[in-house]
Write a structure and sequence with these properties.
Oligomer: single chain
Shape: elongated
Distance between the termini: 31 Å
Number of domains: 1
Strand order of the largest sheet: 1-2
Largest sheet: 2 strands, antiparallel
Strand content: 5-15%
Number of helices: 4
Number of strands: 2
């Protein structure tokens, strides 16, 4: 089973409110509206695509020490 098939099945169960999700219809409506707004904003077109190189970045580890993505490579 492909990842897309699994995601589609999860989405169908989630939106149907099947256990263990039991999500109210109002929440599904908000999610659909937010998704439509995100698509309309064009943000997805600016996102990195599969195979693109991510820019270097630095984040703190759990102890607060900076860790560079370049150092991890």
């Amino acid at each position: 089973m492909s990842l897309q098939t699994k995601l589609d099945a999860f989405k169908a169960d989630f939106e149907a409110g099947k256990p263990p999700y039991n999500v109210p219809a109002s929440v599904i409506e908000v999610m659909h509206r937010a998704t439509a707004e995100l698509v309309a904003s064009g943000a997805a077109e600016k996102a990195l695509k599969a195979g693109n190189k991510a820019p270097s970045f630095t984040l703190n580890d759990p102890e607060g020490n900076p860790v560079s993505s370049a150092d991890l490579l």
